[in-house]
Write a structure and sequence with these properties.
Number of strands: 5
Number of helices: 6
Strand order of the largest sheet: 3-5-4
Strand content: 5-15%
Shape: rod-shaped
Structural class: mainly alpha
Oligomer: single chain
Distance between the termini: 165 Å
């Protein structure tokens, strides 16, 4: 199958696995050229990703990259494609005819430059576009072909500039606003961190106060128990005192009785009356 060009060893330099073709590389080459023609993408720089994953599905959607390279190689040999290096890796330019003229080379340079506008670096994008516009205008002055094409190209470039410059300006303003918000956010984060530290200090003091309050509550309970015990003792002492006073009163009555009896005996003795035992 490999000899008949119905399959190819993949990866190369080994003979254990093959990539089977359900179309020959030549048929895929014609499919690729027809697709570029039908989608008006002739003379346009395309990445391999643009071909294998287009916005609208096509017969080329998901085509294996090794097979795509073979198809592009066939078109390149017949002068209908040019393999290019682009920012994203590999790219190709599908040509309408077999012969690439000098004007084609100039248009290729312009397309390549325009294609790179979408991938310019993040700093000063608006300025980069303005510089690119000047280069494009300078390059179009070298055209030897119909000047109407040059005017159309310049109008397209101007329209592109008028559309993209405001976008980049807004993007730069939004970037500055983002930086300002980042500074403000950093300030708020610092304040939040300071507040968090204060909260931690207050929480620690609160915990210490709670511990002290708990200890005070324990001491209070002990004092209440001691007070209750003292009240019980005082009540008991009061009862004992009442009993003692009652006993003392009884003893006083007994003493007074004995005292009266003694006085009565004395009176009898002093009066000379016989005393009966």
């Amino acid at each position: 199958m490999v000899v008949k060009d119905l399959a190819a060893y993949e990866p190369q330099k080994q003979m254990k696995s093959v990539l089977l073709y359900w179309r020959s590389p030549g048929e895929w080459a014609e499919t690729l050229h027809n697709w570029a023609t039908e989608t008006a993408q002739l003379n346009t720089i395309l990445t391999f990703y643009d071909i294998t994953d287009p916005p609208i599905d096509s017969e080329l959607s998901g085509i294996p990259i090794p097979l795509l390279r073979k198809a592009i190689g066939i078109l390149s040999k017949t002068g209908r494609a040019q393999i290019l290096g682009v920012a994203d890796g590999e790219g190709v330019r599908i040509l309408a005819s077999k012969l690439a003229t000098c004007q084609d080379e100039q248009v290729l340079a312009i397309n390549n430059l325009a294609h790179c506008l979408a991938r310019i670096n993040q700093d000063s994008k608006a300025i980069k576009v303005e510089i690119a516009e000047k280069k494009l205008k300078k390059l179009t002055k070298t055209f030897d072909s119909n000047k109407s094409d040059t005017i159309i190209l310049l109008e397209a470039v101007t329209d592109f500039r008028e559309r993209i410059i405001p976008v980049f300006r807004r993007a730069e303003e939004q970037t500055l606003e983002i930086e300002r918000l980042k500074v403000q956010l950093s300030k708020y984060q610092s304040e939040v961190a300071a507040n968090a530290r204060q909260i931690e200090t207050l929480e620690r003091k609160r915990d210490e106060a709670c511990d002290l309050l708990q200890k005070t509550a324990v001491e209070r309970d002990k004092a209440i128990d001691s007070s209750n015990q003292a009240v019980l003792k005082i009540n008991q002492l009061r009862k004992d005192l009442i009993q003692i006073k009652a006993q003392e009163s009884k003893l006083e009555d007994t003493r007074n009785l004995h005292k009266a009896q003694l006085l009565e005996h004395k009176d009898l003795v002093f009066s000379g009356c016989p005393v009966f035992s």
